[in-house]
Hints:
By secondary structure, chain A is mostly beta strands. Chain A is built from five helices and 23 strands. Chain A has helices at residues 4-10, 126-130, 161-164, 196-199, 265-276, and strands at residues 23-31, 39-40, 46-56, 59-62, 76-78, 82-85, 92-100, 102-104, 106-109, 113-114, 123-124, 136-144, 147-155, 170-171, 180-182, 189-192, 219-222, 225-229, 235-240, 247-249, 253-255, 258-259, 281-282. Chain B folds into two domains: 2-220, TolA/TonB C-terminal domain; 250-905, Maltoporin, Chain A (Beta Barrel). The chains are: A mainly beta, B mainly beta. At the A-B interface, strand 7 of A face strand 39 of B.
Amino acid sequence: MVRWRHCLLVVLLAGCIDTGVEPVSVPLSAAGTSTSGPILARHDVPVTLDRADLAFGPFTVCAGFQAGDNCDSALADWTEAAVIDTLDPVPQRLGNLEGIGGSARSYMYDHGYVSLLTDTRRLELPAADELGGSSFVVEGSATVDGVNVPFRASSVLAQSASVERGSPIVRSGTDDEFALELHADTAPLTVRFDPRSWVEDIDFRVLSQNETCAMDQEVVCQLQTELECGPSGEILRETDCSALGLVCAPDVGCVDRIELEPGSQGLAAIRNAILAGKPPAFE
Amino acid sequence: MSLSLPARGAAAVGALMFIFILSGAPVAAQSDAGVPPDAHTEAGPEDDEDPAPPADGDEETDGAGEEPAEPSRSEESPPSEREGGASVSPPRIVRSPAPTYPTSAAGSGLHPTVVIEVTLDDGGHVLEAQVEHSGGQRFDAAAIEAVQGWTFEPARRGDTPIAARVRVAVHFDLPSFDLPSPVGDPSAGSSRTTESAPVETDTSDDPSEEEPSFGATAEVEAEELRRQQRSASAFTANREVLEAAPHQEGADLLSVAPGFYAARPAGAAIAHRIMIRGFDAKHGQDVALSVGGLPINLPSHVHGQGYADLGFLIPEVVSQVRVLEGVHDPRQGDFAVAGSAAFDLAVERRGVTLKTGYGSFGTFRQLALWAPEDAADETFGAVQVQRSDGFGQNRRSLATSAIVQVASPRGRGGWRFRVLGIANVARADLAGVLRDDDITSGRVDFYDVYQLPTAVRQNAANTRLMVGVFGSRRFASGANAEVGVFAGADLFRTQQNFTGFIQESRTLEDVAGRGDLIEQRNRTTTAGLKASYRSPRAAPWSWLEARVELGTETRLDWITQEQNLIDATVRNQTWDERVDADVFGTDIGLYGDVELTFAERAVLSVGARADVLFYEIDDRLGNFAPDSRPDDTFIMGFRRSAMGVAGGPRASLAVEATDWLSLLGAYGEGFRSPQARFLEDGERAPFTKVRSADVGLRAQWDELLTVTIGGYWTRLGDDVAFEPEEAALRRIGATRRLGAVAHVQARPLPWLVAAGSVTYVDAELLEPPPPSVEEPNPPFEEGQNLPYVPPVVVRLDVGARGPLGELRGQKVTGRVGAGFSYLSPRPLPFGFNAAPVALLDASAGVAWGPVEIGFSVFNLLGSEYAAFELYYVSDWTNGGVRSRVPARHIQAGAPRTLMGTVELAW
């Protein structure tokens, strides 16, 4: 369209240009959610979180209603990653979301690991390194049958090279309501995670074992008592973990806290919750 | 018709021919009441059936010792015309003293031809002489002075002498002390020897009797009978303007035309990128280019529709550039969307020229040019070799081209033939694109290349051979005809990486990220013909004259093209196939044009053109569907054909408001053929339609000053823009341009020539593809300004040339020149703008006898500028975190470049 008003002074030197969309730089922050009371996990097991650190980033916003393959050309992104204390509701400044103006309707992000087209190995970013090579670290305790069970969970969240190599692991779908108008005056964006949802689907009762020795078992927990078993299922030794200030971990024995192992329901529940559960809020 | 005059001394020699226009001009109309004043006749320079042999001039005349000869004619083809029952015979030259070679031009090496339109009364006396085709102010004045001294036998209708106008060409030859004596040798001293008998002027009348003798030749330029300047958007840049500022390559000459800008951002061996008044014509998709009548654009080229590489063009052999912006001449065919440009080839300075240039960045250029002295200006042979280390990393190049053209004199039957052959080969390493953020962060220098195999292996190569044979015939009736055949073979190959590492193989499962090095291969074999016939002038009424032109332009193209992704780390292994196709294309163009002249004040040309386009496509990767490969129920491939007719009117109107002011208007509808691979089976409109209109005025005060001001409008049915991901073009929907141009050409002093233009355009995208699931964030929005198109283009050319004195008996001449180009900020996709570009080039030279030493500076101001800017998504991190946001990419323009030359001419 002819923009004669713009032409009056600059026609000979610059001409009339439809400036269209403009570069945008939106301050980006991330925050957690306050957990004032206990969280109820499966079977109403109360859980208290002491630590819920999450590697977040890179983060990309897209124009289409579905990210992923349809976001080869994005509107804006933040190409770094940082560790977020998701128990702290105070926004933590990450950087700037840099890009072009437009209406963003979807997003995608990683958790400290980036899948590359140029390599079958994933790229670990410093934020993941900061978490000991994990995308998240969750620590807390659950009260199972009146027994306080400290636990810890950590894992890598990364796109599998055999699935969609080169794509971020979290991509919003058409059901996710996301709308962000990107322009020069766009207000700072805060991504808020709620770690409560991560543990709500964990069955902590499986962490409280009440068994006795049987054949081919080396260690079992009889509630908070560790039983060391012989080859034929006889009890070789009994240790009261609680007396030592420890907790009896199934198949492990007395430990400071129970580590949610890969393949365990607890760790899978957290992974699922982070990747496909309640999406973060954008404020 | 040819006239020959007898020898009358040793001073001047020349062949003389003329056409005459029995004037419906005021002279004839007023003086010959008994004869229809509208009886216009145009005769060829010689009888078309039986050209006059050289005559000895055995017929005495009343000239003081001059003895004009009767032209020899065959009985069956008299060089006269019967009008209203009366036989019309043209005027004849009785006496023609040679022109005086301007002393101020001595040593300039110039030997131009000046075409003069002479008005004769019924007594054969010269009433008026006007320059029709200038050879420069000094030569124009000398030619007019000479012609005013000529005497003619008047034209006659029956036995009645009548007034007439004749058009004669006066040719200035170089001093004869270095030429064979013309005496007794009709072929000596003139390049127009065989077309008619020589003329030797009476030295007793010749003021330059004791001076070195000069040749004088009169000749009709038949081709100029066709109106060239049809609109306010028609421009012709002659050699003086072309030589005013330095030009590194032949294609750079286009920049002298208003709104044009040509550059090689990708590097040598890749065609210039051309911009023309609101069009980013890419590598030629929107501008029809021809060189010596050979069409240059290649249809359905894999690198871009209409790909036209002018890298072979040697600037020293270009005599003029004729630019027609817009579409309104029926001769404009495929790719004349924004306009057309024709390079005419001729070498004015005869003899042998050797030119060696050496400059910055290891740039070397060698030119060898031979222009036989006894042949026409159009006859020459030139070979050029260029090599350079490049102004940054990965820019080494080597190119060689040869152009040979032989033009025969007009021979028996009135035919004149010209054979043109062009060959070139070039190869260059390419630096490719750089992300602006990588330059800013210091990862890579502005003139460097990414140090990755997929980047440093970028290169391009091409080779091309073109030949053409063109004939023109002048009929005694004033009609003329042209015919030409041409053929060519072209090979093009590039390896370019625009996007880094974002591609995935569609052919091989789970293969990705091996570098987006796109290999493109295109081979085209072309054969074609062109022919036209232009009727004699008809004058049904005193106030109306009419001529009809019919013509055809036909070409066949056999095209093979491929596009692959290759891995530079493992000997260019192909890791994905994108294009593998054969295309056969036919374009048969037919046009007609009626030129109506009203009372000699207004000329209306109305015509039409239709092109029948046919394509047969063997797309061997058609129907490729990777998801269905395990269950393939068909063999891959998509063979199809399409055919359609692209037609439209062409019209132009020129009104001479005063002797110096013309009002001009034009309208036309043209087309651009498609990339054939994009066609569906049976598609009936395989072309893009363009509508173009121009209005303006042109004021001309002889050679002193010409001012053109115009406005233009263009609407394109389906435009295209560059798509870096595929290194090809993508459709962006309808577009519209609205703009204005001002152009000035001046010769305020005999030794000074200047030209300048300002072009403004508002180019708007009307119907871009809407957002889709696959592309929710399209780079183009409705109403936005067209990407890559500078709204304002400014061009200035200034040159001065003249004698400086004498040194050891040899004349010393000097020259200086400068050219300035300015491109305003260009819109880019996603709403960004490219930085403006301002480039100043300058040159100077001193000639002493046969030696000239020259010095040129390109980008004198040393601007660090991007020759091309793009906005798109790329990943050059090679293992880092990629951004998916479109980013600014640049191709660096050349920094300040110095070039010194030594030229020997004899």
